[in-house]
UniProtKB/TrEMBL annotation:
The keyword Transferase applies. Pfam families: Glyco_tran_WbsX (PF14307). CDD domains: Glyco_tran_WbsX. GO terms for molecular function: transferase activity. It comes from the Bacteria. Keywords: Transferase. InterPro entries: WbsX. It comes from Halpernia humi. This is Glycosyltransferase WbsX.
Amino acid sequence: MSNNKIKYLAYYLPQFHPIPENDEWWGEGFTEWTNVKKAKPLFKGHQQPVKPGELGYYDLLKTEEIQEKQAKLAKEHGIDGFIYYQYWFGNGKMLLEKPAEKMLANINVDLPFCFCWANESWRGIWHGLDNPDTLMEQTYNGEEDYKNYFNYLLPFFQDQRYVKIDNKPVFVVYDAAALPNDFIPFFQNLAKENQLNGIYFMASNRGSNDYDYKSKGFDSKISGDYNVLLDKELFKIRKPTFRNRLLKKLQKNVNLPMVLDYKSFFKKLKYTNSNVETFPMVLPNWDNTPRSKYKGFLFSNSSPDLFKKEIKKAIKFLNNKDCKEKLIIIKSWNEWAEGNYIEPDENLGRNWLKSFK
């Protein structure tokens, strides 16, 4: 990637096609759309359900030319690439890998891409169940397993569309702190053995900026300031004060999710640096009540205009420091069941995307 201008990379969720595991856990035909379609408003003015716009309720494996259409739409609005979530659980077990494989085989999907390894166990509680049981456990099984994972990734790394920094493929790790200490050095050696300049390891937005990413082998970090502030603000709501006990009782009685005002929240958000190159993350909205119902939380009063202000804040953060690459991470392209998307919807059309113009 060149550093002549700001580049935008958007997280991309592949859970838009059925898989046997989701059929077993959630019912036949389950995809991200399942929860989106059955969502209901939980209070007056709550905008649910949301409905997709021009791309419709797509299936990433069946809908004709859907990935080409997504790529074209992204490029037309200044998005420079997708960060595909990837689910490798160890011992060769993967989930939701087919959309990326389909994209790799189709040169007409004309948009750069890279991966975010979502190295975390899947739990039932994510989808609003009271049962926190582990559905699929994340494991780390040593060098032979790491080598198998690298060999799977190699054709993607070698693809001309793969996002590179310093001529190294960018590889985002969701839970940087959980990564075994021998993983990054081992991957770097394998990269050089396969005629790559190395791997550019980027820690995701999970975790604060205070962690020592450099000693772990990371080259950069997606700012964790949003996550830290969110934990702080939600703690204020949950704190056992008299007022909050009263609100909690009311919430339980009338099934109200936690609500934060978008403008007020992001006014408090200040970007800070970690001990590696740090890239800001922008977020258009959040509402995970389609998954979690009244146990979820959402932003109220979000809008493309306010989102555009957050993009400008991120640009200012990058322009006020010396950095080789100027990246802004978008969360997300299509996390519909979390109200966290910039794809066109029925209500706003392409207005989220127009924020980048």
